[in-house]
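Posted in: Structural Biology > Protein-Ligand Complexes

Title: Requesting predicted complex, adenosine-5'-diphosphate in pocket

I'd be grateful if someone could produce the 3D structure tokens for the following input. Sequence and ligand are given below.
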Amino acid sequence: MTRIAIYPGSFDPVTYGHLDIIKRAVRIFDKVIVAVAHNSEKDPLFSVSERVELLKKATGNIKGVEIDDFHGLVVDYVKSKGTKVVIRGIRMISDFEYEFQMALTNRKLSEDVETIFMMPSESYSYLSSKLIKEAASLGANLKGFVPGFVEKAIKLKMR
Ligand code: ADP
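-- Reply #1 --
Done. Output follows.
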């Protein structure tokens, strides 16, 4: 049996924090499908297809990863992939409340779906796509936060 997990999110754009979670997840699951949500972010910097492309490039050398996008409910997408597992990252206590609500809402929507929380390396526990975009807009160097080609893509968008 192939153990498949879905890692859903906005990924606007992918950071080293997301990549850390993906690398940990492929150690436990045969296949990790990183799925970009069409409806999660109100004012995204990158389109869904751009986010998918950046994720593909960033995970090209990690075995067992697939990149996709989805519309609608996470639980419906999870079932459409023939699995029951959702992975989410928890950076700090501040993530917990929202993630807890979402996991329990998803459980209410579908009893079968389980959410697994994973912690990144502490060196990435402060990283967020939102803060990286803010820092970039103020001219920050993003080395150490995102791969070089992601930094270039952010800077091109902000020109
Ligand atoms: P969403 O809008 O669904 O929260 P994000 O792209 O911000 O989308 O995050 C997707 C998932 O990755 C969430 O579970 C989030 O907690 C997790 N995540 C984001 N940044 C990091 C990080 N630096 N380390 C670990 N997990 C992270």
